[in-house]
From TrEMBL:
Protein name: DUF1064 domain-containing protein
InterPro entries: DUF1064
Species name: marine sediment metagenome
Amino acid sequence: MIDLVRSGEISRLEVHPKWEIFVNGQKICTYTADFVYWENSNYVVEDVKSQPTMTPVYRLKKKMMKAVHGIEIQEIGIVKRTKRRSKVSAAGMA
């Protein structure tokens, strides 16, 4: 991200910004994104997500950010690495 700021591709980078989510005057929760920045005059809210972090609570907060603040969260996925198993031939198992 720092390289993108230095190159001028994005600006006004913030790390872990927070939004309070209120409904009918009552605070429901706080959402914390990973990054916020401006790119080509667009305000971007970005969250890095892996499968284990895509919890029901996160999904609800994402929907509430859209409904309450009008903010669409951009998700950046993490690819899970798998261990490679060595191949054993049928002849080698005897």
